[in-house]
Amino acid sequence: MCVKYLYILLVTVLALQCSPQNKVVTSGSDAIAFEVIHQSKLEMLGDNTSRILNSQQEIDYLYQFLNASPKGYGQIPIPAYDANETLITINATPKTMNDIKVVSIVKNGDKLNIIGEDVENPHLKPESRWKSAIIIKLSGVYHNQTISFTVK
Question: What confidence score (pLDDT) does residue 91 get?
Fold first, then answer.
């Protein structure tokens, strides 16, 4: 039993040490630069749910939840609220593989279309399809947008 918990802790630490995803999609004028600043296997919201964090208080609350998680994440650095950036949190479950990667974000009117894809994470069991909690930092202010998250 103890070995199982050590394995989960090791996998979690390895997954958190992976470099952040930095993407800029150039296929259209409405593409948005973004960076995934945190991703873990933890359910914060309902499945395929997203939320824009509009204040430092909301950011602190979310990170307080992450840091209190029994999954062994330890103290995750809390980002400072910046009025020139937008933080979004997403909770989603992979469809066919064991992890999710955000590949693009495009603004279409008052809607942010976030596209993710299923990926195979070698640090996780192949058959596991745990929900991913993803926190994304966008360059720019998008506080009054609706969010659509789709996994390919």
Answer: 86
pLDDT of residue 28: 44
Question: Which tokens in the block code for residue 71?
Answer: 């999954």
Three-class SS state of 64: helix
CA distance 151 to 65: 25
Phi, psi of 144 (to 5 degrees): -105, 35
Residue 62 region, left (φ>0) first, then alpha (ψ -120 to 50), else beta?
A: alpha
Q: Using alpha carbons, select from 58, 80, 54, 81 the residue that is nearest to residue 144.
A: 54
- Residue 54 CA to residue 96 CA, distance in Å, equals 33
State the number of CA atoms in the 13 A half-sphere of 15 facing the CB. 27
Cα 138 from Cα 85, distance rounded (Å): 6
Amino acid at 126: P
Mean pLDDT of each 10-residue bin along the chain, 152 residues long: 40 39 48 91 68 92 79 74 93 81 93 91 74 89 90 84
Of the candidates 146, 142, 137, which has an alpha carbon nearest to the alpha carbon of residue 33?
137
Q: 143, 83 in Cβ contact below 8 A?
A: no
